[in-house]
Amino acid sequence: MLRLSPAGCSRFVQVDSFDVIWGGGEANVAVSCANYGHEAAFVTKLPAHEIGQAAVNALRRYGVDTRHIARGGNRVGIYYCETGASMRPSKVIYDRAGSAIAEADPADFDFDAIMEGADWFHWSGITPAISDKAAELTRLACEAAKRHGVTVSVDLNFRKKLWTSAKAQSVMRPLMQYVDVCIGNEEDAELCLGFKPDADVEGGNTDASGYERIFKAMAEEFGFRYVVSTLRESYSATHNGWKAMAYDGKDFYVSKRYDINPIIDRVGGGDAFSGGMIHGLLTMDSIGEALEFAVAASALKQTIPGDFNLVDAAEVRALAGGSANGRVQR
Q: Which of 108, 155, 265, 271 is the catalytic position?
């Protein structure tokens, strides 16, 4: 996607120009995985004109394989993002109707060829929310992934400006049969799947016991191998508490908590978590280690402008290991 943002913390109505930033849910995850040394490929459809090419080039810059990107259609999806500060929240306006991926057809992709030899397929709930066509493509991709023995993860990512909870559940719940790793937050679980934790996140009450029950219920109903949730305690637009929890069908894990103050750019923080979780589950000995890596990765992302998490695995491991003083490295 193309993100257009006023510079700094300016409001939409006071600027005459916007900064151009490339990103989007699954693209952000692909960049994270490439930064950790994985062969990461991104699948979408983009116009054949120069703006579409600019989007492709943004992914290539960070080592993401773009060979499976179909070309065609009329436009790239756009969203406008106004960065909040203190008690003023950030604001997003979508302009995605009629984008190339929203209008894409199954004939644009050979999902069996795409999944051949892959280890992992990740998608987010934003994709099927774009259009009914995109929802069908998501289902076909998931079916192909399972035919080829590929692990499937989802970041539920409910977006109320794209669809209703009723529509989301009608689409997302049937797709869960293909999912091995379910990632989301408390709002996503409730609005996409109908599971509400006994927790008051806004009030800072995020006791683990309120989540353990619904994690077990979700795993039992959908057969997830892992259920994972991020927990954001929002004190202001620029000050958040951040941690995560995970359930592996037997044990429940809670990560360390990070106090992120000031937040530079929270957009892409959840995607950075997904990318870190994928890397951790592919390369580490335990889900506990993977969870700590993912939380540290997403905390670091929120110190970086833009959608992409531009850190390597060594930087994430350093923070997860306790190096959080921010001293200059010489």
A: 271
- Kindly state the tokens that stand for 211: 């989540």
Distance, in Å, from the CA atom of 164 to the CA atom of 170, rounded to the nearest integer, reads 10
Q: What is the pTM of this model?
A: 0.95
Q: What is the pLDDT of residues 60-116, one digit of tens each?
A: 999 999 999 999 999 999 999 999 999 999 999 999 999 999 999 999 999 999 999
Gyration radius (Cα) of the chain, Å: 19
CA distance 217 to 204: 23
**Integer CA distances (angstroms), 305 to 90, 126, 158, 233, 265, in order:** 14, 22, 23, 21, 5
Whole-angstrom Cα distance, residue 236 to residue 296? 20
CA distance linking residue 222 with residue 43, whole number of Å:
26
**Does residue 271 carry a catalytic annotation?**
yes
